Amino acid sequence: MSERPEAARAARATLTQRTVIGDPATVDLRGKVDGAWSDFRTALEAALPAMPVGSRLTVTLDPTATGTGEAVYDVVLRVLPQSVVHADAVGNAGLPEEYRLDRVAVGDLVALGWSPPGVVEETADRFGLRVPMDEAPGVASVVTRTLRDVYGAPHPAFLTYTVSGDDVLPALGSARPVAAGTVLAAHTPSSAVAAYDIPLEEQVRTVVASLSKTDPDALNPDDDGEFSVRAGSAMVFVKINDNPRLVDVYSPILTEVEPDERLYERLSQLTQRMPIGRLYCTESTVWASVPVFGRDFQPTHLLLALQVMTRLADELDDRLQGDFGGKRFFGEGDKGVSRAERTGMYL
Fold first, then answer.
1. What is the mean pLDDT of residues 149-159?
2. Is residue 302 very low, low, confident or very high in pLDDT (cuts 50, 70, 90)?
3. How far is CA 131 from CA 24, 55, 166, 200, in A?
4. Which end of the chain, N or C, is less surrounded by CB atoms within 10 Å?
5. Which among 127, 140, 55, 141 has a CA at the least distance from the CA of 94?
6. Is the pLDDT confidence value at 343 over 90?
């Protein structure tokens, strides 16, 4: 079984859970993520009619941020004469074997309105779609759902896009336009926008300082080279790792926990509801972690990870401590709860 079809199925399952499960720990985060996708779809809908004939817009799930290696999941949109929109999306012929779409994902593409590879003119081995420009809203919706539900993009901030045939790059919500030698990130605080030649350490410092509303020069790492951000009763750490090159945003949600099967099941359920990152328990500590790739680092990805983690850690440490005991980072008076005391507690 290939890895990517499993990821696509997980993304669809997560979407369903976000829609029908009002978990207090994720409801606000769900709204932010859904809102970001809505902004992306609306912006794409507006951008298509403004594109001149012959221009090409390519939207790509950034492989350096998602860990998909050589697999490039993309959608290309072109404006043809007589106000026609042509779109094509990558299929299995363009993907490495381990990242190819399974039958469920292929069926989802067809259900969204894509024609199988080669059916639409000039699509070759890619899924195709060709409609009049007045159907641009439908095209924007299909593209958005393809990137999110089928290709598994957790947030528009993980998308990059380029435009050829036109000197103007439209703003597509929190997706990142890529122009020669420049990183553009309109949704990121201006102080967090970084050029390629700035060292990773300085870019990380700038993003953390922006979130903390402090001057980057006043922000110093601890003896372990980590930056820290307090989030209520939790503490979030930001650390740069060299091998592999990534920025780890993590939090010790609870310490001195007595793990059991029910705790592991709870953490698994919560992880499925997170748009990015994971929860796990090791050595009597419950951890939350959201890694950000350091290669071709994008400040927007770190900013999103920090926003996710600060919100998540502050809410989950309270809820999990009440159910499973243990100690919060800033939980004065916290104490462990014995297995006997946990009898009958719900998941």
1. 86
2. confident
3. 41, 16, 21, 44
4. N
5. 127
6. no
User: 200-328 is classed in which CATH architecture?
Assistant: 2-Layer Sandwich (3.30)
For residue 56, what are the β-bridge partners? 78, 164
Cβ burial, residue 181 (10 Å; 0-12/13-18/19+) = exposed
What pLDDT is stored for residue 199 in this prediction? 84
* Better-predicted residue by pLDDT, 192 or 286: 286
Note whether 150 and 104 are within 8 A (CB).
no
Q: Alpha helix locations (H) across the chain?
A: 3-20, 27-50, 63-66, 103-112, 136-145, 200-212, 261-273, 299-324
Given strand 278-282, what is the order of strands in its sheet?
227-231, 234-242, 245-254, 285-293, 278-282
Dig out the tokens for 98 from the structure. 């381990």
Domain residue spans of the chain: 31-177, 200-328
